[in-house]
Amino acid sequence: MAIDTVMEMIKAPISTVFDASQCPVRDVFAHIGDKWASLILQTLGYKPHRFGELKRAIPDISQAMLTGTLRSLQRDGLVHRKVFPTQPPSVEYSLTELGQSLLGPVAALVVWTAEHHGRISEARRQYDSDNPPAKKKVAVG
Hints:
Layout: H1 3-11, H2 14-17, H3 24-32, H4 35-46, E1 49-50, H5 51-57, H6 63-75, E2 79-84, E3 90-95, H7 97-130
């Protein structure tokens, strides 16, 4: 899809653009838009990794979340899983050609985030200051 077409879609009222339940952007972003997928894609962008290497490279991800995210990325054709016939079997993950093509857009988002994080943090502080949490009423009796 050409960038001009995407820009026209952005400018149009959402109800005239597409059926939200069939939205291809939503469908893909559901898998690649979370923090774990982007971290895994960035990590595999440097070189292929075995599961344990990925877990060490992203230490705050749980084993279950890493497994699930890798499966999702593999299902989407972004990650290749290669099993080596060793005892016990070892597995290596790498980016496919399609996954490699996603590195540029992910890197652009990372750069944008780094450039604007201060402004976003300040906006959050201001919002929180202007909108303090409601105090809970304590029932007496």
